[in-house]
Fold this protein.
Amino acid sequence: MGIPVDYKDMEALDPEYYKSLVWIVENDITGLDLTFSLEVEDYGLKKTVDLKPNGHEIAVTEENKQEYVTLVSEMKV
């Protein structure tokens, strides 16, 4: 559709996940050990999916957490 996805769009799709994203945006995430990757289940098998190239090696910080929330939202939609 060409419409950018925002983390607020997640509220209608998955209210609990949305609350987690809001928490990340509104709080200090230092020490959470997040990376730009997600663990997903695909037909019963768990695998890691990078949100951007080499995402599993890139730490989410206070400076880049908004990018993380945006990329996670795009992945979940």
Q: What stands out?
A: The first helix runs from residue 10 to 13. DSSP finds three helices and two strands in the chain. The chain has a mean pLDDT of 89. The beta strands are 37-42, 45-50.
